[in-house]
Amino acid sequence: MFAHLPRRIRDKWYPEPMPPAGSFEGQTVLVTGATSGLGLAAATHFVALGANVIVTARNKTGGEIAQRKIMASAGATNHAKVKVMELDMSRYSSCMDFFNELKEHRSGEGGLDCAVLNAGCINRHFTESPEGREQTIQVNALSTTLLGLLISKWMKQERPNRITPAHLVFISSRSHIAPDFMKWPGYSNNGGLLNRLCAEENFPLDVENPNYPNSKLLLMYNIEEMSKQALGQDGTPQVIVNSVCPGIVYTDIASPKAHEPLLRQLVVRLFMTLIGKKPEYGARFYVKAALKTPEEHGTFVESLDTEEGYRE
Hints:
Keywords: NADP, Oxidoreductase. The chain is of the alpha/beta class and 312 residues long.
């Protein structure tokens, strides 16, 4: 954290540059979890850059509110520029229903030009998902992986209908390097890794967002495999897959809650005021990832390190 402090402060005040106007003209871009924060900001960027955007929300009302915000911020007047679809990432059935509806509307036309899987959650307290898994693991790792597998396979099938490969962008976090993954193989003898991470008795209450780094590390392992599956027989990517860390961003999901201790609220607000980027700045890394070349397939997009430095 402190080794990268100067870079984080710089990122707060000097954002990643935006690509030229019209960079996504005529393209169709999916952004999941786009009702607030980074997802909302990313969808706004894509619309402003010329894209037709599909945004997801857990309910229609929330999606329509986001639609109006995006259009107003991007200066768009045509409601067809922003389509709203319902998606609840805590349920596999919702992921499947969403994908089937999406595929029905876009198949045979080259599919999507880009999918940004942004929907996620952070839980300080144990919450069980409808699928019986801890909510952070369910949403950030399991459901995101399911949706990623479905979309990447579909994008690969649509490759003959496209001039260039489609992009699949996963929102990860640099915090995925934090877990002590050397312990993970040992959990296979005690019910398996998922059972270990999703058991309430193993959910530490003295750790900030205890399962968030675990969920992102699980996701990164899965992204590595999906990146391999995206290759064609000649070894070139039929889908350009990347993961991205937007850095520390001051969003609602990161804000302290009123019921939390006052000291914690003050510390978090001070920290975010000093380092936390605006969502509009953090979302620029989503746009950057969506423009990666085939040669950059499989890379981790962030501001704090090069790909070589990250891999080391």
